[in-house]
Automatic annotation (TrEMBL):
Listed EC numbers: 2.5.1.18
Protein name per its UniProtKB record: glutathione transferase
Protein biosynthesis is among the record's keywords: no
Source taxon at top rank: Eukaryota
Annotated PROSITE patterns: GST_CTER, GST_NTER
Organism: Oryza brachyantha
Length: 225
């Protein structure tokens, strides 16, 4: 049974959203401590004072502190293997190796262009920042290349690492959600124009765990307040 799990950050942050989705998949109880509350009260904990928490996530479990969202998800899955979704990080070495391959692809190749598009298509319009068409086009092209590969894989598999929903899929949700739901339809088209990617995104974004995250984001808009 999990005890003393704390997440410091804003649900609107993609890093925080990734961790929250994992916590919900694992059906773990936790405390969400909004960073802005601490900033207003000038009572930032010592382990957060050493870094800029803006748009990031800090996780504590007892005396353990982790700041990378993907590392936090791996920790939760290995620390609490019998809780909630037991197959989300694989049940054997071969399954886990496949999941890790996709986690690396997400972190190294998907994250950069998708994060740029999240900013330019979802955040910038709400902050009244003029559109940078060249940056948008460049990152659309990069993400398009990635999603072409994904579409080929998803033509054979229900999910990226096989027939089960895993961290490989979950890790893509935060950025994908902002792009698909941006004011501009061009982001959504990246995902809906590909048959298998469209089916995959519809499935993973419909999971109860992710719907809980989206609900929290609507209740705690964070960066948009």
């Amino acid at each position: 049974m999990a005890a003393g799990l704390q997440v410091f950050g804003q649900p609107a942050s993609t890093d925080v959203a990734r961790v929250l989705a994992c916590l919900f998949e694992k059906n773990l109880e936790f405390e969400l401590v909004r960073i802005d509350t601490f900033k207003k009260e000038h009572k930032l904990p010592e382990f957060i004072k050493l870094r800029d928490p803006t748009g990031q996530v800090t996780f504590k479990h007892g005396d353990k502190t982790i700041v990378d969202s993907r590392a936090i998800c791996r920790y939760l899955c290995t620390q609490f293997p019998e809780d909630g979704n037991r197959t989300i990080y694989g049940t054997g070495s071969l399954e886990r190796a496949s999941i890790e391959q996709w986690l690396q692809a997400e972190a190294q190749s998907f994250d950069a262009p998708s994060s740029e598009l999240v900013f330019h298509l979802a955040f910038a319009p709400q902050l009244n920042i003029p559109a940078d068409e060249s940056r948008i086009a460049e990152n659309e092209r990069k993400l398009q290349q990635m999603l072409n590969v994904y579409d080929e894989i998803l033509a054979k598999n229900r999910y990226l690492a096989g027939d089960e929903f895993t961290l490989a899929d979950l890790s893509h949700l935060p950025n994908s959600h902002y792009i698909v739901n941006a004011r501009s339809p061009r982001g959504k088209k990246l995902f809906t124009s590909k048959k298998h990617v469209a089916r995959w995104y519809e499935e993973i974004s419909s999971r109860p765990s992710w719907k809980q995250v989206v609900k929290m984001q609507s209740e705690h808009p964070g960066a948009f307040e």
